[in-house]
Design a protein that fits this description.
Blueprint (H helix, E strand, L loop, with lengths): L1 H8 L2 H18 L7 H8 L1 H13 L14 H8 L10 H23 L4 H28 L1 H5 L12 H17 L4 H14 L2 H15 L1
Helix pairs in contact: 2-4, 2-7, 4-6, 5-6, 7-9, 7-10, 9-10, 9-11
Length: 216
């Protein structure tokens, strides 16, 4: 309800970016199982967070870009995949996950359609960068609170018991987008720190993929 209220009271021209920030942070929190109730809430409401992106993109003021017809295969395939889990034991849970897949694909298409020029692209990337930067700050807080538990003697970061491969993605996103979003000091403030941490041995395997994807 708090997310819905926040999006509702936000001016229309900022809703898209706010929704992207929220879903990025909320996705990161959903990976941190040691956060207890907050983690459980993030996992349970992840579909709502992506739904906010979908609604914000649909009601975003301005022109829309056309997308190739093949893009619509993604939500269709996500919906069609439900037939493969109709006979499983926990069918309701499986159907909810497939429903979230449909929402995620529709949200991605709707968001892409709002990117019509360089400025709109920069604003969307800024949303991802700020969201990833906030996720990194949460991870750094966990690291400061209990550095021994975070590393567990393996040389890899398990902050709040998050998978380092998944957590490293947010470091990579924040570092790379911070470099290309020169107009947003809020992103650049975490970019240098993320770049250093991403280059460390504990994050090397986790950030190689995202960095290549954003720089290619």
């Amino acid at each position: 309800s708090a997310m819905l209220l926040g999006i509702a009271v936000t001016p229309a021209r900022f809703r898209r970016e706010l929704a992207v920030i929220v879903v990025t942070v909320w996705t990161a929190v959903g990976q941190m199982s040691d956060l207890g109730f907050i983690h459980a809430a993030a996992k349970a409401t992840s579909g709502i967070a992506f739904g906010l992106v979908l609604l914000a993109a649909l009601f975003h003021p301005g022109p829309r870009r056309p997308v190739h017809w093949s893009c619509w295969l993604f939500p269709l395939l996500a919906a069609f995949s439900a037939i493969f889990i109709l006979t499983v034991d926990n069918r309701l849970h499986a159907l909810v996950i497939r429903g979230q897949w449909v929402i995620v694909t529709l949200a991605a298409i709707a968001l892409v359609r709002t990117v019509v020029d360089a400025e709109s692209l920069r604003r969307v990337l800024a949303g991802f960068g700020i969201g990833a930067g906030l996720a990194v700050l949460i991870a750094l807080v966990g690291l400061a609170m209990d550095p021994g538990s975070a590393f567990r003697g393996t040389g890899r970061m398990f902050v709040f018991n998050a998978n380092p491969n998944q957590l490293g993605t947010f470091f990579g996103i924040a570092a790379v987008i911070g470099e290309i979003s020169s107009g947003h000091s809020g992103i650049q403030s975490t970019s240098s720190a993320c770049r250093v941490i991403s280059a460390s041995p504990s994050m090397a395997t986790a950030t190689t993929g995202p960095e290549r994807a954003f720089t290619s």
